[in-house]
Amino acid sequence: MDLSHVGHFKSSKGSTCRLVVFHLNKPFINLCINNVQAVGLDYTSATTAAASAAAIRWVSKDGIGAVGRFFIGGRFGNLFDDDPKQWRMYADFIGSAGSIFDLCTPIYPAYFLPLASLGNLAKAVARGLKDPSFRVIQNHFAVSGNLGDVAAKEEVWEVSAQLMGLGLGILILSAPGLVNSYPVLASTWMTMRLLHLWLRYQSLSVLQFNTVNLKRARILVNLHVSTSTVLGCEECNKMENILSWEKFSVPRIVFGVSLSDMLAGETSGLKVKKLLKLYSKEKYILVLNQQPFKDFKILVSFKDGATSLSVLRSVWQAYWLYKNHSRQENMFDQLQESLKELDHQFDQFLQQLRDVGWDMNSINLKVCKDVLIEDSPVR
Q: Which pTM does this prediction carry?
């Protein structure tokens, strides 16, 4: 935008006025048009109908994002205490995907509403995953109950980082030719986003929890069954894979299975009674996969009154069976032998965990309560 002419003239009342004429160069006009079109507005129409349509578009895309947050909070609220590092990382991945949709709106202005709606939905889901998981991480640092102080300090660091990023963004956008070059702009965004994800992963990788969740329980139990030793908090947290899914872990352990599924559909009274008698002292029932030509899989069902310690006991038994099972031997004989080893070694395992600094009063192992077996005496 250039100031092309400044002149003076006298009004009808005799006062002197100054006339300023601006000349809008073509690149500036194109930039304004592109920005207007990118948010779903048609710059050629200024009617009430166009304004109403634009308002409906904005409300629609924001409403879809709100539905996404509502769904995450209502459906998956019980996941974040178990593995906050994983869900905090996934939140950044999903938020990045949402930003990609926003980045595509200037290229396809005719599809602004679906693109912006998908972007808002993805970012809302990401926020629904980020806030609860980050609250768990903040609570971990509040060792003396000073959660408010920890949250306030985190807010200062976050605002400082945002201001630095804002300043860096202004410097980048002020570079000649960058604003009008979409490939360069997109490449710059992608580079910064990848750097952000890498830094997020590094920060979560060094985060150390002294509580036992399912991932850390697998690492600790696997080593103890093999060597009768346990890892400390630092070593175990370093070995924990933040991005891995439980369903891909080996051995495969499925919790909350019904008795009919555990026995492959054979719900004969004799087998059920034998299982209940075998696990009369436990708050769970565990069996090996009985289907031939299938991968090794452990099926676990919990009884009324099962606790996190019951889940940990079932994981220990599952790993012992994984390392010592034989397809030629009778399943009940193997289960009986694994229970004997569990009774013999599990208390020692817990004591070793306490000795190296694990907090055994806060075991983050959820009992799957979809299917519960009534705990009644077997005659």
A: 0.77
